[in-house]
Design goal:
Blueprint: E1 6-12, H1 19-31, E2 35-41, H2 47-60, E3 65-70, E4 73-74, H3 79-85, E5 90-93, E6 132-135, E7 142-146, H4 148-152, E8 161-162, E9 168-170, H5 172-182, E10 187-190, E11 196-198, E12 201-203, E13 227-229
Parallel strand pairs: 1-2, 1-3, 5-10
Antiparallel strand pairs: 3-7, 4-11, 5-7, 6-10, 8-9, 11-12, 12-13
Length: 235
């Protein structure tokens, strides 16, 4: 791997960064041999504006890549190196929304390359491969994007697509992916990386397949699923 590659580590937040996220990022910084430029986006009103701010700062710093990490994510220390090794312009991970039952932030495809609607498929059919695979969209809570992508796309790079009646049709990350695909880019995800999303639990899946949803009585113990009870240090 070329050690001269410069990567902007972009932390998008409008609150305190979770201590476990800080620990993971410190381990990542210590692990990689790449040149890192740290960006913390706090001067924004929406997540979309925060992501745009990070892109602008990465351009000013002449970074080659940008690695997004939200303030409530848990990731492995070699996440950056493993994502970069794939050589894909846009590559994300399998993370989960803070909902039960667990729901991946990936927009997966069927055999025809069309959107695979979770409401029309079983959990087994919606299982995420533990390898690199193509998707329609990734969540940008943890995502690596080559900076040349932003040079080729029109601004804004991220935005919420709203219905005239006021409800959200598409989040800022899915909208970015749709614009990138229109420009000829493919969207990839590495399902082998273990990613946690911090909420009342650490929302992540450690087993290949399960339909188990934790009961109230078991909220203080590690669970199949894997939603580990998380005690926040925030006051």
């Amino acid at each position: 791997m070329n050690k001269d590659i410069k990567v902007s580590l972009a932390i998008v937040t409008n609150r305190l960064i979770q201590p476990q996220t800080v620990k993971c990022l410190l381990n990542l910084v210590n692990q990689t041999k790449l040149k890192l430029h740290i960006i913390i986006s706090q001067e924004h009103y929406t997540t979309a504006q925060g992501r745009i701010y990070c892109v602008v700062q990465a351009m000013k710093n002449k970074s080659d890549w940008i690695l997004y990490c939200d303030d409530d994510m848990i990731l492995e220390k070699d996440t950056l190196d493993r994502l970069l090794a794939h050589g894909k312009e846009i590559v994300g991970v399998n993370s989960y929304s803070r909902t039960l039952p667990l729901s991946t932030t990936l927009m997966m495809t069927n055999d025809k390359g069309e959107y695979k609607d979770p409401s029309k498929h079983t959990e087994w059919e919606m299982r995420v491969p533990e390898e690199l695979f193509e998707v329609l969209a990734i969540g940008t809570g943890v995502a690596l994007i080559k900076m040349e992508v932003f040079e080729k796309l029109k601004k804004p790079w991220f935005k919420f697509e709203m219905h005239p009646d006021g409800w959200m049709k598409q989040g800022e990350d899915a909208w970015f992916c749709s614009q990138a695909r229109k420009a000829g880019y493919k969207i990839w995800a590495d399902g082998s990386l273990k990613i946690g999303h911090i909420g009342s639990y650490i929302y992540q899946k450690s087993e290949e397949f399960t339909t188990f949803v934790p009961s109230v009585e078991r909220t203080n113990s590690p669970m199949v699923g894997e939603m580990v009870k998380f005690e926040s240090t925030n006051i």
